[in-house]
Write a structure and sequence with these properties.
Layout: H1 5-23, E1 28-29, H2 34-43, H3 48-64, H4 66-69, H5 77-82, E2 88-90, E3 100-105, H6 116-133, H7 135-140, E4 142-147, H8 153-156, H9 161-173, E5 179-185, H10 189-198, H11 204-208, E6 210-214, H12 217-221, H13 243-251, H14 253-258, E7 263-264
Parallel strand pairs: 3-4, 4-5, 5-6
Antiparallel strand pairs: 1-7, 2-3
Helix pairs in contact: 1-3, 2-3, 3-9, 6-9
Length: about 270
Amino acid sequence: MAENNDTKQQQQQILEEFREMVLAEKNLTPRVEDAFLLKFLRIWNFDKNKSLVLKQNYYKLRCDYSHLYKNFSLSSPQMQALRQNNMATILPQPDQHGRLISVVRLGNWDTTLSNFDDLFVSLHMTLEVIIEDNLQAQLNGIVSIIDFEGISFQHVKQFGPANINRTITLIERSMPIWFHQFHFVNDNAMFKIIYTLLLPFLTKSMRERIFLHGRNLESLYKHVNRDNLPQELGGLQPPLDNSALVEKLYEYEEYLQKLNSFGYKQGI
């Protein structure tokens, strides 16, 4: 929608109608402030019906896995373990299209210190902070680079069908942010097992947004400029450093805990 007075009036009307739709949901204690509702409307270009489904999915996911969020703490040993070795971070500058770049190095995940539940909650909380803190990221979306260097059978064992399904539900159907591309690099035999497990859960849209580069990083650079990437990926930026992301998460820890007060009282 073009940003003129008529459009702004239309958007305001849609926002009010959307708020009424959300408030009409049974057994739901929702957030209804303008800024939060607009996140769900923007992602669907102010289609309030599609936005409502996304909003329902957002709260249903939290309801289905409420036991994982109840005692969430960034200071827990499991969360601290996930922050070691720069396993996951957001790069300080976006790509050439203004999209946020996330880098996950699965081989750096110590599965003896944290399990898939911990990884899932960490991903979810990071996305919550991104959509709350970074409007440009919500508008432009995310490009995710997943580095499989060093993964072992211990990692493969974490990727059961239920874990894969809930992760795809989170990133594809439950959060008001768009993952434009997924780039898989530095794969090995263990990756092939994970990818085989992953395939049945992928929608046609997701399959079209996944790029398998193997160890050919030149192939990656066709999608994400090398200028924007860290040294670990052959880029021209400094080495990976997740300290800024960790600091941002701690800044929002109280906010993340307050999110537990919203949602469905019972399943829908």
